[in-house]
From TrEMBL:
<dbReference type="Pfam" id="PF13509">
    <property type="entry name" value="S1_2"/>
</dbReference>
<dbReference type="InterPro" id="IPR048588">
    <property type="entry name" value="CvfB_S1_2nd"/>
</dbReference>
<dbReference type="InterPro" id="IPR012340">
    <property type="entry name" value="NA-bd_OB-fold"/>
</dbReference>
<comment type="similarity">
    <text>Belongs to the CvfB family.</text>
</comment>
<dbReference type="InterPro" id="IPR048587">
    <property type="entry name" value="CvfB_S1_3rd"/>
</dbReference>
<dbReference type="Pfam" id="PF21543">
    <property type="entry name" value="CvfB_2nd"/>
</dbReference>
<protein>
    <submittedName>
        <fullName>S1-like domain-containing RNA-binding protein</fullName>
    </submittedName>
</protein>
<dbReference type="Pfam" id="PF21191">
    <property type="entry name" value="CvfB_1st"/>
</dbReference>
<dbReference type="InterPro" id="IPR014464">
    <property type="entry name" value="CvfB_fam"/>
</dbReference>
<dbReference type="InterPro" id="IPR036388">
    <property type="entry name" value="WH-like_DNA-bd_sf"/>
</dbReference>
<dbReference type="InterPro" id="IPR039566">
    <property type="entry name" value="CvfB_S1_st"/>
</dbReference>
<dbReference type="Pfam" id="PF17783">
    <property type="entry name" value="WHD_CvfB"/>
</dbReference>
<dbReference type="InterPro" id="IPR040764">
    <property type="entry name" value="CvfB_WH"/>
</dbReference>
<feature type="domain" description="S1 motif">
    <location>
        <begin position="149"/>
        <end position="209"/>
    </location>
</feature>
<dbReference type="InterPro" id="IPR003029">
    <property type="entry name" value="S1_domain"/>
</dbReference>
Amino acid sequence: MNQIGTNQTLEVLRKIDTGYVLEGDILLHHNETDKELEAEQSVEVFVYQDKKGQTVATTQLPAIQIDTYGWAEVVEVLPHLGVFVNIGTTKEILVSKDDLPLFIDVWPIVGDELYVSLGKDRKGRLLALPATEGIFERMFESAPDDLLNDTVSGRIYRTDREGAVCITEEGYRGFIHHTERKGEPRLGEQVEGRVIEVKHDGTLNVSLRPLKQHSMGEDADEILTLLEENNGVMPFSDKSDPEEIRETFNISKAAFKRALGKLMKERKIEQRDGKTYLISE
């Protein structure tokens, strides 16, 4: 018996008007392959069920299969069912509302991404199953100690009343306490936040709240002071190395760029050739 939801190598039994019959009486439609096949030839396919419940195949091979995880983009939201995701084939797979947050306000929207594997419902139909915390724990990288105040970008994979959890682009686990966000982020949403703590276990606490205005003002004042003490020029710009910025100003590159932007908007500085100059009044 062929396992739906997996990539398999099957033999072509015969060619028919609508496509090919593969071993196990699985139909491979012409529009599901760009190959011309012959009887007794082997072909690698993804096996699934169509809307009629018939077992069919496609030569579009997804990375996401039974017990194999990957990121899948949300392509449709149906409140009475759940959300459909694109796993890389013409068959879009349902993430059941039973596997989504209780409140639809924090469901993913079209364009968000979920980290899923394939499974089956009670009737044997394919479902996309969001990864658990245990699955993500295998993926996490330990964050370095010097990320404090840095900006990180990540994808939300869990959300509840206490807070939300994301995995950053670097593979770090980031927890966002409910007090550190203006609104609850959606499952699957890409967010950008500020690191407010690097914990001993290598995970992060992240804030989605913007930096307070006075913090940017303090950084800008420090830049102005350095310029005034160095004849109106410093060998730093928004292209400078993050480590050099941190060693000199004790702030992240993101905070440094915000302060530069504030000063340029106020027409107090300008940048040329990798350096920053004080504008004389």
